[in-house]
Amino acid sequence: MVSSKVFYTADDVAELLTISRPTAYRIIRKLNDELAEKGFIIISGRVPKKYFDEKFYC
Q: How many domains does one find in the chain?
């Protein structure tokens, strides 16, 4: 059901990249920091699916 979401959670990122949840949280934090620097409003613990897909080819 990951494909119908607007945001990915740490569990989604961990599953997509086959990594641990703590590592997924670090990736989400980094991506959200990039978005915040660009002036976007972010949601802690979630990353927009569109932005994640631009950064990672899964």
A: 1
